[in-house]
Amino acid sequence: MKQRKNKEVSSQDLCQLVTKGMIEKKGQEIAILDLRKVKNAVADYFIICSGTSDTQIDAIADSIEHEVHKAIQENPWHKEGKTNREWILIDYVDVVVHVFKKDRRKYYDLEELWGDAELTLIEESVA
């Protein structure tokens, strides 16, 4: 079973770092899906945000990785989507981050797909 290197940092704390990275680069419609009570969930949390261009979603993904590494010296377990820059996935094992181009987010609609999860929307003005 895969595990995060830094187990001293909770998945909630990791969510805060990810969210900070999203806000830093003006990520839009930030949503945290708490999957801890969802049967057979693949992670504790999904964190989702949108960007308006491929350049912005690339910058958001880089900002997330920077914030997490700066605070807890942790790198993602896995990441994909950096090449086509329409949906970048950053997997920190118990926290999985999805950075979408707006139209791709609507198409995949992860919030609806994981409708049993507790949903928290983050105000972009939070720093």
Automatic annotation (TrEMBL):
MF annotations from Gene Ontology: ribosomal large subunit binding
Keywords: Cytoplasm, Repressor, Translation regulation
Signal peptide bounds: none
Keyword field contains Cytoplasm: yes
Listed GO CC annotations: cytoplasm
Gene3D superfamilies assigned: Beta Polymerase, domain 2
Listed GO biological process terms: cytosolic ribosome assembly; negative regulation of ribosome biogenesis; negative regulation of translation
Primary location recorded for the protein, binned into one broad class: cytoplasm
Self-association and partners: Interacts with ribosomal protein uL14 (rplN).
HAMAP family, A to Z: Iojap_RsfS
Protein family: Belongs to the Iojap/RsfS family.
Function: Functions as a ribosomal silencing factor. Interacts with ribosomal protein uL14 (rplN), blocking formation of intersubunit bridge B8. Prevents association of the 30S and 50S ribosomal subunits and the formation of functional ribosomes, thus repressing translation.
The name this protein goes by in its record: Ribosomal silencing factor RsfS
UniProt source species: Arundinibacter roseus
